[in-house]
Amino acid sequence: MRTIVCQSYRTHNVQSWVPRCLKSVHGWADLKGFDYRFMGDSFFDLVPTWYKERVKGNPLLLSDLARLVLVRQLLQEGYDRAIWVDADVVVFDPESLEVRIDREYAFAREVWVRRIPLLGFAITRYGVKVHNAFAVFVRGNSILDFLIHSCETVVATKTEPLLGGDAGVFLLSKLYAIAKYPLILDVGMLSPALSHDILKGGGAVTRGFMERNGSPIHAANLCNSYDGISAMGVRMDDARFNTLIDLLLETKGRVVNRFHRSAR
Prior knowledge:
The protein has about 260 residues and is of the alpha/beta class.
């Protein structure tokens, strides 16, 4: 099956840790014998002008549509399968990360970890959704055109203020609640609260994440949208992201996966 992995990121003001993520994905693609395609600043040219104006430059909403258009183009070029990977995804166990989807499509499961202050303490909440930081589409699939139409429709018709997840995680999660399509379980989503716990060596928060994820993880989205922002009592920055990547690469994910039941 002729497969291509595609990614995009801006080519200016790039944080020091993002190229490390890109390199890990490119290396994984080479290891598996996949072609690789990277798009820089021209990526958003794939999005219609009216859409850009409607989302007011929101990079999450722009990327949600642009990635689908790019994937469609690649499949039309003759590839049998296209894999989209966000630029803030690090592959820390490339030998173990396998894509077994050979028909239709799949998105990744998201276990979102929050830490909520309460009466001087903090409680942990876990929300399960679907994310598109890692997505697979096989030529002839039945959803790609529908998703492109859905993204455009959501953005064109929503009367309330548009949110960053409206054409991505919110849309995919609502569809999954109805359709129960295939999910990829081994690409995790590391929220700031979860990243903070992992940086401390992993504790109750990481254990709770693994109990709900249902699988060891071999790659993870590091949530670039929280770079430089204080959230959940944590501020992620270049230094912390780089340290997190170091820890994941050095342990090949064991700092997280040791809490999975298969490791006990």
